[in-house]
Prior knowledge:
Blueprint: H1 6-16, E1 55-60, H2 66-78, E2 86-90, E3 99-104, E4 113-116, E5 123-125, E6 131-133, E7 136-141, H3 153-167, H4 201-209, E8 235-236, E9 250-251, H5 255-261, E10 264-279, E11 287-302, E12 311-318, E13 328-340, H6 341-345, H7 351-357, E14 360-363, E15 369-373, E16 376-379, H8 385-388, H9 395-406
Parallel strand pairs: 1-2, 1-3, 3-7, 12-14
Antiparallel strand pairs: 4-7, 5-6, 8-9, 10-11, 10-13, 11-12, 13-14, 13-15, 15-16
Helix pairs in contact: 2-3, 5-9
Amino acid sequence: MTRRAALLGAIFLALAQVPGPVAADHGGRDIGSLFSCDRPGISPPRCTSVADGRRHLIVFDSTLTDGLASSMRDSMIEDYGRTELELIEQESVTDDTDVIVFSEDYGENGAAGWVYCPPDAPQGVNRWGDRWCRQQELYLNLNPRYAGFFADDGSRDHVACHELGHTVGLRHWGNPPRSPEPAAATCMNADTPDGPSDLHQIDIDHIDGYRYTRLPLHRPRMLDRIDLRPNGGRLVSAWPGQSVLAMEVEHFGSLAEMADGADAVVLGRIVAITPGRSFGGASGHPLRYATVSVEVDDLLAGGLPAAHAQSVILEVPLFGGAPEIASGSASARGVFFLRSKATSAADAGPADVQDRESAYYRLVVLNAAILDDHDTAAVADGDHAFLEVLDGLRFEDVVLTVERAATIDPG
């Protein structure tokens, strides 16, 4: 995906990941990381981490028995296939691998299975304060002391479902640790060698309601660390191979510059995304647009004509083989830095072009939108670090930051 397609991807990603309902009080435990991975005196070392995204890549080590490999595959498809996660078997370990599964006789160490995040594994803390970990190690102990956990297909299915659950942050029902009643048929019951082999619907709701994401530990998080001062002149240059005028040709030095360079900065809500206009069809490589309808909740900077005071039509180009989209309603809140297409066309065409374009807006650059992702700001990748530093902050704080930036003289 090109940089110019990144914004549209961010919008669709946000819309696709609206969580399902999460049950209130019940016997299940919320998604989360559990225990330090280097607790003294704990052998074997074990800890529960969360995944770093909804794609969960799993490698079966050569030590894994055929029966357990079959149970793992069944659970990945039949149990976790009912969730919004995508569990994928890999042939070998890569930097993106999430879990490596082993099975051997590890001795009478008190555990039939456990999950561990090694200290040298790629890991960090996400925006919810949970440890995420790649290359987690999932061990299944074939010592005869724990034979009841692996005695038949049903038992192996239970332990596979259970330990996979720990790799995405599911925690025990029952004891240990004890959870409130009612007890329920779930593979996350603890200490049940011949236990249920399926996830409970509550487990599925927890998984689907959790925003799996990773956030490196070095990422700035505090509002007072955001630099709002102008830090460079505005650069104007042509995009290599560009065939559309006034598209991604600007670079802003600060949030204040971007607000000043917009005709309007609005806090609004996307209410519909539909197929839009198409240009250059005769060339055989038409440029298609998505039309994004945005209801305006507040004007943070600039101005809008009376006809657009309550809603604007935002056009987003579908570059580089982006898929066709179907018309439909949507719901995504955000801050949008808008440029009137009539303004963009003023020096590039006659009056009739300006009139035709006056109904449409574009983003000043194609990642100039800050989406509200579960009360947290989400920003697409791009060339403006001052936007990316907002990613992961509390959305309402970001709105205030944009308003504050709009009062700064960028000159």
